Amino acid sequence: MVDENLGNRYEVGAPPSCVGALAGDLGWGLGVVLRAYALAARTAVADLPGGPRGYQVLSAAAQGTVTSQLALAQHLGVDRTVMTYLLDDLEAAKLIERRPDPSDRRARRVVATQLGIELLATLDDQLRAAEAEVLAPLDREARETFRTQVRLLATRADPLAPANTPCDLAQEVGAEPPRPGERHRLAGTR
Predict the structure, then answer these.
(1) Within a 10 A sphere around the Cβ of 79, how many other Cβ atoms?
(2) Does the residue 112 lie in any domain?
């Protein structure tokens, strides 16, 4: 049977499905996979202050890949005010420490504590399990190929579309950015 309004075929009595119509659409496919992964990842790190963003901060702190609090905020595309509160929450949970930077006394280095490193190992296992669930329809070789291709696309696309801060987004739509001193709570914290 053909739905005259949409031009789609479906069996009599069955509701029409957009899957067939959108199966070749890259945006739809990426969106579905991203939503599935985001839900699984949020669930895996739900108890961590800041959720997935807190995980990214903890991971970067444990790896020592970013030298300062400001550089960390820029690297992750997080407004520096929001980053401050996220770091406060992670520090209160004794997962990270902010230490003076020996090369610049105005800067603070974000360092994972031993408790943070141990929790990160557990979270990494939980995230691998979440990823395995999302990628379950693919065999091992296809999963590795997919990861490699996504990494290539992400590293090429990132410089073309830098992450916007909440203030940048507010200015784009003509809204008022947050005022200094106003504390904005992060979803999933305290």
Answers:
(1) 20
(2) yes
Helix, strand, coil tally for the chain in percent (to 5): 55, 10, 35
Round the average pLDDT of the chain to a whole number and report it. Answer: 80
Q: What is the mean predicted confidence (pLDDT) over 135-139?
A: 95
- The enclosing domain of 77 has a CATH number of 1.10.10.10
pLDDT band at residue 23 under the 50/70/90 scheme? confident
- Which pair of structure tokens corresponds to residue 178? 């947050």
In a domain, 128, yes or no: yes
- The residues that bridge with 112 in the sheet, in sequence order, are 96
Q: Which two tokens stand for residue 74?
A: 């820029």
What's the whole-model pTM score?
0.66
Phi-psi region of 175 (alpha: psi -120 to 50; beta: other; left: phi over 0): beta
**CA-to-CA distance for 91 and 87, rounded, in angstroms?**
6
Residue 156 sits at the vertex; the CA angle it makes with 164 and 110, to the nearest 5 degrees, is 55
Q: Does any domain span residue 147?
A: yes
> Tokens 């995230």 sit at which residue?
127
